[in-house]
Amino acid sequence: xxxxxxxxxxxxxxxxxxxxxxxxxxxxxxxxxxxxxxxxxxxxxxxxxxxxxxxxxxxxxxxxxxxxxxxxxxxxxxxxxxxxxxxxxxxxxxxxxxxxxxxxxxxxxxxxxxxxxxxxxxxxxxxxxxxxxxxxxxxxxxxxxxxxxxxxxxxxxxxxxxxxxxxxxxxxxxxxxxxxxxxxxxxxxxxxxxxxxxxxxxxxxxxxxxxxxxxxxxxxxxxxxxxxxxxxxxxxxxxxxxxxxxxxxxxxxxxxxxxxxxxxxxxxxxxxxxxxxxxxxxxxxxxxxxxxxxxxxxxxxxxxxxxxxx
Length: 310
Description:
By secondary structure, this protein is an alpha+beta fold. The chain has 2 domains: 7-107, no CATH class; 112-308, no CATH class. It has helices spanning 7-19, 54-66, 92-107, 124-131, 152-164, and strands at residues 25-26, 34-39, 77-81, 85-90, 111-122, 136-140, 143-150, 168-171, 174-177, 183-202, 205-227, 233-244, 249-253, 262-266, 269-280, 285-291, 297-308. The strands form 4 sheets. Strands 5, 6, 7, 8, 9, 16 and 17 form a 7-stranded antiparallel sheet that branches. A 4-stranded antiparallel sheet has the order 1-2-4-3. Strand 10 and strand 11 form a beta hairpin. The protein is globular. Residues 17-22 have low confidence and may be disordered.
């Protein structure tokens, strides 16, 4: 269990950051740990105008944890404090690493990171013949996924292998975001269905009003990227494709004694979810793949590029 960040130290550290951003506070433990707060507003050129959220701050903290070279122990932590602050608790070495990553984001505050996500549907034989050799099989959440970072010098060769699969192109959005700012892009269709009924008494009888739920099908990509001190880009991606089985199954249920049964709907979805945390050089590709229930493979090709807005 992580050591909780003491509120008095957080409040004092906020005051210290406002006066001198590089100042650190010693934590009264025997390990010589330090506490430092980082201001997310200072990582963006339009920090005064950008709308900060708790979710965005939490994802920024997760990004910093993901690319920390010195692993956190149970006594260390990096977490969001409110909507604006990232608190780092750890050794001097860990704090210095976080500061370097934060400085890299601040250095590129006038730049955007453009992330392109290409979603492909590939036949099993084509996947085995042309793409499998480029990827590494990994067990994730009781499912096998295939993934790899394709270095820039091999990206063109991999693109040629993709073309030979005669794949179906499903989606190819481009998203531009600031460092440490999460973005989401999706193409979804919402489908309403009757999931239950609410029974209310009226006079000598009762009324059953349907309760409507919604289920979606389509695809969604959640992305977060940042500049790293060595010039590479740190990237977290979560790509999800979901299909609704049609027609929606139905069932008859008795909710009113002596009355007519009513129909409820039982939607069933199938899908694939691909997740990755990777450090990529300019021009490199993150490739993720998994087999769908129908047999074809879903392949996601993610590319992150720095874009100057000056």
